[in-house]
Design goal:
- There is one protein chain.
- The protein has 119 residues and is mainly alpha-helical.
- Helices cover 69% and strands 10% of the residues.
- The protein has helices at 3-15, 20-27, 31-43, 64-85, 90-115; strands spanning 18-19, 47-51, 58-62.
- It has a three-stranded antiparallel β-sheet.
Length: 119
Amino acid sequence: MSLTSAATLATLDRTGPRRITDLAAVEGVTQPAMTALVRVMEESGLVERRGASDKRVTLVCLTEVGASYVRTRRQAGVHAFERLIGELTGDEVEALVAALPALKHLAELESQDREGPKQ
């Protein structure tokens, strides 16, 4: 799976259903590229398109298979970090713990950046 596909699934997991134009903007790709990507993910059973209250709008939603894929990838990342942190010295672990507030703030800023301006 491409990084853009994985990032798109993660965005849908975090923010809920989105329009293709919104997803393209958030992921930094063209609308035609996102349309093609959504088609491939739809064929794989990871996402589905649903109508919104405005009948002119179609939203892309995670399926249960897609949500499960995102959870599995996140858990794999957690396990990888646990293993690597286990190889650090005590001082290095303390330095990581001290950096956690700054890292959390960076993640919040990145999330705001990816979600775009509030409407």
